[in-house]
Design a protein that fits this description.
Oligomer: single chain
Distance between the termini: 48 Å
Order of helices and strands: HEHHEHHH
Helix content: 40-55%
Shape: flat
């Protein structure tokens, strides 16, 4: 998929930025397992990878939104790509017009206590 992304979909891009979760196959090392070293390096040099936090509450919001999309828009067979695009645009427009808020429950203080190993230690 990475090779197709770079060579077919974005052949002229100097860098392609990917936001990926922390799945064990989502590493540069997996390119070296799939391709010879020269090809793996060629692909790796064109990638800029940002990993999502393992414990990011914003990720739950994104997953919730995808779940709503699946239930409200993709809950049936959509016959053509054009129909799918039209349905997705209509759903997205409606969703953006009826914005939903997020009630954050996790405070910065709680995060610093619960996730203290993730915060740098400052020497006094």
């Amino acid at each position: 998929m990475i090779q197709e992304l770079l060579d077919v979909h974005y052949p002229n891009a100097l860098k392609v930025v990917l936001v990926m979760d922390n799945l064990n196959t989502h590493t540069i090392g997996s390119l070296y397992e799939a391709f010879d070293p020269v090809e793996a390096r060629r692909l790796a040099e064109r990638l800029e990878i940002h990993y999502t936090p393992k414990h990011g509450s914003w990720l739950n919001i994104a997953e919730t939104e995808l779940s709503v999309l699946a239930m409200q828009c993709l809950d049936r067979r959509i016959p053509t790509m054009e129909d799918l695009k039209r349905e997705l645009h209509a759903w997205e427009d409606d969703r953006n017009q009826t914005t939903k808020g997020v009630d954050w429950q996790f405070t910065t203080h709680e995060a610093r206590v619960k996730l203290r190993r993730l915060y740098p230690r400052l020497l006094a």
